[in-house]
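To make this tangible, this section ends with a sequence with its structure tokens:
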Amino acid sequence: MKTNINLWWILAGFFFLCFALYTGWNIIEHSNLPWYNAIEWVGSVVLLFTVFMAAMIGFYVDRVYRSQKGVDLPEDSLTADIDDGDPEIGEFSPWSWWPLVLAFSAALGILGLAVGQFLLPIGLGVFAVAIVGWVYEYYRGYFAR
């Protein structure tokens, strides 16, 4: 976990270096303009926000590590077995087709926003069918409980 913390802080520093170089390069390249017009604001802001996001993740992982009182997870130990971790991850349906239908409805809805407005209600209808089918797939059929 300590490696993850260090990795995120190194990434934050790297993105800050990229932000500084990118902004400085734009100011030098367009030296005939005032500095606030020479900066390419979209790229500079995106790189600065990337610094903030990496720092936020690094800070969060550090706080979680400290709340665990510095105890490493089984995933971090080189001598740990697979059974040392928590075996209960969740319940998955490898035979379910509903996530595929749900993804198709999302694609149809986004395509409706981008190309034609008439596709949006169709995408919403397919989404309603897909979400109901996914929620109630264990209530009927072969895998009913």
In short: The CA atoms of residues 90 and 96 lie 15 Å apart. The longest helix spans residues 2-29.
